[in-house]
Specification:
This protein is α/β, with parallel strands linked by helices and 213 residues long. The chain has nine helices and five strands, in the order H-H-H-H-E-H-E-H-E-H-E-H-E-H. It has two domains: 81 residues, Methionine synthase domain (Methyltransferase, Methionine Synthase (B12-binding Domains), Chain A, domain 1); 120 residues, Rossmann fold. Bound molecules: CO-5-methoxybenzimidazolylcobamide.
Length: 213
């Protein structure tokens, strides 16, 4: 449908106004929230993610696309709640204690949200127990940790240990990402997976929750 194609393209261009206008238009036409989400916002963000991975576009473009996605989502959210659109599952994310870097974590959150997951973003400087308490309370099976400082990376191990201590493994898995991390470090601290970027976080979460797309 042309309107939803335009919505997807507005994300690719990072045009928040157009994204809001197209989303509003689709809602006024009476299209179901799930369809607007899947064929408009998610479709657009998927293209953005692929182009970012291929280095065809850069960080500012992704941030603009993210802003445009939020402009559409803000209008769609009340409808989604009303129509009880099924989410693919919940993921708790946050930047670990002592670390205030949140740009990468926010991007990962947007990608996950764009892929249909419910994201519970705890923000930055988050204590290990807060991650675990939230996952238990909300019934989330995945905790996603971000760290940008070599000094805060060890906090990730504490989250893994807190999950283990409470006997929540393997039901709750911990995935980790951030510029100073590596797959080797993730394995060393006992994390379930290392994700290089938002796309790989989406792929990992889909695989872990058995979601096909
Ligand atoms: Co800071 N900083 N910073 N900083 N900062 C770095 C990280 C640093 C490498 C710069 C440098 O020295 N070259 C360095 C760390 C060195 C080290 O640890 N060895 C550093 C430092 C030292 C500091 C301070 C200590 C500086 C000071 O005060 N003396 C201080 C620390 C504050 C704190 O956290 N307690 C500090 C502060 C800041 C600002 C506040 C100014 C700002 C952050 C603003 C914000 O986030 N709101 C800032 C910034 C912007 C940076 C750099 C320049 C850029 C980080 C960024 O946003 N990258 C950074 C240098 C760099 O990384 N090149 C630097 C873009 C972002 C999209 O990428 O976050 O890597 P990234 O996320 C990627 C992937 O890593 C991955 O996906 C994302 C998308 O592709 N990913 C995940 C991230 N989290 C993931 C989670 C996942 C999966 C994938 O699953 C759950």
């Amino acid at each position: 449908m042309k309107l939803l194609e335009e919505l997807a393209q507005s994300l690719e261009r990072g045009d928040s106004q157009a994204a809001a206008d197209s989303t509003r238009g689709a809602i006024e036409l009476g299209l179901p929230a799930q369809r607007i989400l899947d064929d408009g916002l998610i479709a657009g963000m998927a293209v953005v993610g692929r182009r970012f991975k291929a280095h065809e576009i850069f960080l500012p473009d992704v941030l603009l696309a993210a802003k445009a996605m939020y402009a559409g989502l803000a209008l769609l959210k009340p409808l989604m709640i009303e129509q009880a659109v099924a989410t693919q599952g919940k993921v708790v994310i946050g930047t670990v204690q002592g670390d205030l870097h949140d740009i990468g974590k926010n991007l990962v959150g947007i990608m996950l949200e764009g892929a249909g997951f419910e994201v519970l973003d705890l923000g930055t400087d988050v204590a290990p127990e807060t991650f675990v308490d939230t996952a238990v309370r909300e019934g989330a099976r995945i905790i996603g940790l971000s760290a940008l400082l070599t000094t805060t990376m060890p906090v990730m191990r504490k989250v893994v240990e807190a999950v283990e201590k409470r006997g929540l493994r393997p039901e709750i898995r911990v995935i980790v990402g951030g510029a100073p991390l590596s797959a080797a470090y993730a394995a060393e601290i006992g994390a379930s997976a290392y994700c290089f970027d938002g796309i790989s976080a989406v792929e990992t979460v889909r695989e872990m929750l058995g979601v096909e797309r």
